[in-house]
Amino acid sequence: MGDTVIPRRAPFLFLRAALAAGTMLAAASPTLPQTTQPNKTREQPAAPTETIEIGLSTETIAITSNFGGTNLTIFGALDNADPLIRRQGRYDIIVVLQGPERDLVVRKKERYLGVWVNAESQTFLGVPLSYSLASTRSLQDIADPKIFRQLSIGVDNFYLAPEAADKSDANIPEFGKELREIKMRQGLYSQRIGDVEFISPTLFRATLSLPTNVPVGRHRARALLFRSGTFVREANTSLQIVKAGLEYRIYEAAQNYSLLYGLFAVFLAVLTGWFGRLLFRKD
Amino acid sequence: MGIYLPIAELSVNMLVILGMGAAVGFLSGMFGVSGGFLITPLLIFYNIPPAVAVATGVNQVIASSVSGALAHFKRRTLDIKLGLLLVVGGLIGSLLGIYLFSLLRDLGQLDLIVSLLYVLLLGTVGTLMLIESWRALQRVRQGQPVNLKRPGQHNWIHRLPLKMRFRASKIYVSIIPVLGIGFFIGVLAAIMGVGGGFIMVPALIYLLRVPTNVVIGTSLFQVTFVTAFATVMQATTNHSVDIVLAMLLMVGGVIGAQYGTRVGQRLRGEQLRLLLALLVLAVALRLAFDLFVRPDNIFSIAIADG
Questions:
Q1: A115 interaction partners in chain B (CB closer than 8 Å)
Q2: Domain total for chain B?
Q3: pTM score, two decimals?
């Protein structure tokens, strides 16, 4: 029943959001908000069903090679909220932006005859290359850690699938922990507590970090709503990060036209060597 | 002045790279070496990933050897037949080298093996050169005539089958050691990003008894073709040739080489070799040091899928 009400109210909400947030919301399909609303299971059917939506100002972000990192602001709306719970501050929102997934291998160096050598390794499948999280409060204040593990939310909680056949390998937790730590040091995994803020009773703003080395590809944004420690629903959207500029075109050429690229590299070298000789001919 | 290297995927100071190219170009002009064996370690010291340093180093070697090869070709001071056979060996060698390179990279051992090979090679070459030039200097000081050893006697190499006559070199020798030398240089070009002239020249003189007037030209001829082939192979299999980095190194190198040649003509041969030996040993020691020092983080991550 709730669902039939939302489409009527949602455009109004988006309009208000657009006014409040300038252009940030404009491109986020304001006419069809119901398509971005997954109809998730309701934890408490008796209570009014809150809904959550998020919007991005753009589908594509182009970064240049001198990109020094920035913040990405995602606006969202919380609808049908219980005023009492809202006043008590018992609604919590977590917004996650996760990068494209690849298989990653973690290697550990050991000393052999005095030399440091890559020894043991552990491969994890489909690991997000970046993971940026913002939340209203710290995760342990929002809900039970078990819930976060189930939802695969939080830098320390999302599941890393080991490639090894023996899933009980004692090394897996250690290597997984190191993977998360290296990614955090590189700025690719981050958690920002308090960076989801309510700017009105129904509107919220999440500020996520896009680090310098943000991977290109499709990034998935997830917003999760919690009421008094229980997960209510989730909204999803996605965004494409591409690199612009000559440097990236060179990179693409090296990947996609590698033979031509190699021949061109040889040609350039021959030309430079020959030209240098012509320029400084002394013999 | 920062510039972004698209393949190495990091920003570097353009002037540092140009200076690096110029310094190595200066040395290569002074000593008559192609300089790949200095470029690759220097790039590694400057935090360029070893895979990119090797592939870009080999690309840079083409520029510094092609003009020399052309000059020798014009003067007919190279043995084309011998050179072609060395190239054949070199192409096969670099095919194997590229295969080993990719394999080592997948195993996560590439950086280690590249460093170890450099320590081994530069350490040996540097030590031999140091001893040789020191002895030569001693002889000069004692007023003894410089011993110009004329390679004349036959050795075990001349008893191998499949002999072939090389007119320009005036030698009659089995093609097995010729292909073998070419092969070895090809492997080194692919794995280490060097031209390999500093191994080829002594090998041609002492093993095959090639006369000194055609040795340099023939070596440069082979190095040009093998490094060109290795560059294309690196580009197609490992995508690790950084054209921006190579261009900066080559421009610096071409300019540096001109000044190096002039300085080199004023210095005495033995002193020059002693200096080069010390430089080579310094690079080897610096690389060895990194292998033995505990890294900041013993864990590392890399992309595992294609």
A1: 112, 116, 291-292
A2: 1
A3: 0.78
